[in-house]
Amino acid sequence: NLAMLGNAYLRILNPEAAVDALQQAYALDPENGRLRGRIGRALVATHEYHRAVDFYEKSVKELLKVVTGGGGGFGEAAGDRKKAGHNAVKFSDLVNLSHDLAKLYLKLGRAESAIRILSSLLQAKDSLGVQDLNSLRMTVSTLQLLAKVQQVHAPGDVLESLLSAHRSQREVVFQLRSGGGGLSAVAGSEQVEKQKIVLGEICEQIGNAYIELVENRLAEQMFLEAVQHNPQNTRALLGIAQLHFSRGERDLCQAQCVKILLADPLAEEAAVLLSEVLFQKSDNSNANSTRSPGGKERDVSSPMSPQGPNSGGSSRRGAGAGDLGDIPSLEAVTTAAALSPEDLDNAIKPLRDYLLLQPNNYFALEKVVNLVRRAGKLEEVASFLTAAEKNDRRCMSHPGFHFCTGLYARFTNDVGRAISEFNLARKDEAWGSAALTHMVELYLNPDQEGVWEEKEAGPLDDATRSNIAAAEELLKELRPRAKDPQRVKVLENYAALATRQKMNVDRAMQSFVEMLDSDQDYLPAVLGMATGFMIEKNQHKARNLLKRIGKMEMSLHDGEDFEKANLLLAKFYIDKAKNDLAEELCKKTLVQNKSCSQAW
Asked: What is the pTM of this model?
């Protein structure tokens, strides 16, 4: 009755009374493992975390003694089956309590303690030497939870845990197929399918772990195995599509994305990737059509009027509903020099269809803003923003909406509004880092004309000093939250260059040199040094660095920096009256970004 009373209190959201009732029930039945779990969860619900930790730790230690202590364990089945069954129940209680405690430790930011608890549990299971179906399932769930915790504290150990879970889960499926579960034929078949789905999920997680290690061949093998176990595993299908994309196999990538969207029309990442593939296929097709049979490039300059300013900044790689972190940024996708409206519509269609179903998915909306900007069709963004606003009147309180609005304002050169919108998103966990990055870039370069532009000699004006001070404050806020610390360092160096004080310029240049010592082709550092040489009036060295950039292979993640480098080098050529070379660089920039007003 006391246990029922405790459950009733939990249902009416009165955890304090529930804890009292459950503890009274536990005092009357201290062997009841379920009561221990209910008490622990009730303590967590009351935010008494330290008390919950103490209770869980004590309970886990007691159960470990019972399961692995002098009384033997499951191994006594030859002599005392009753005791073996009792210990099996205790081991199940131990697993449940250990998992609850590990999750609590993870919530409290104590990943190391969570790993200790789960490792002790696995050691206890190994000491018992049993491989029955229930213990195998418990082992798999423990290893999966351990891998999740290791992602936070020990990412190098994740793969080993997942591979162990894979071996155990294969054994689970094998035993069920062999009739080891003692189930009827129908029930056994259903269980096999359920456990194959779990096995497919583990294979997909292993594939992602191999991707992190740049073991793409092994990753593809695991993704294919995941699909073999569960053809509806869209995450594994997406992994295969991304591998095709990375190898330039656009047709295969497109086929995979279509398959995913047929299975799940709300698969955001597949819609984004399909748009990228279609856009790049149009790019290649149109680029090839601009060459004559003899291989010479024809004049493909477009009569299109400029749609917006050139602006820096890179697209944030999203997280959230499905991790977008593995998809290349649309900000860096190059467009065709003569992209037709039909090509553009075909490329945007997957994202447009997705946004018709989910108009308030701001990660997809951000991709659309970047895509249409590159195609020189920024006027289309307004309709997407309007649709998001009509679908959810509360969107004005969502940081994602403000970020997308700020991005559109920046690209249309409405700097004041852009800063205001980014400011409304800067505190958010998902959008804050990218919003702060854009704000810093706008404060350092409010005219969006390039920090290399020649300034009048003499002291900086009050507005410029104020902007630099604001950028420095924002950088302090960005530094601990940035996903790319190297990029933050580049921005800090630009802030130092903006002061035009010799000591600060020297410090920034030295920082760029250190970056290039570790990676001689790190484009932001090369461009930063060229900018520094311009400020030092050493145009010869700046020009040589920019020529070096022109020989680099364009990276999907450095599109903005390539654009800035091309424009800066074009300015050099114009000053030297080499207009034909400058024109070629401007055309090259417009292929990448048709909304670049400076290139026009």
From this structure: 0.63
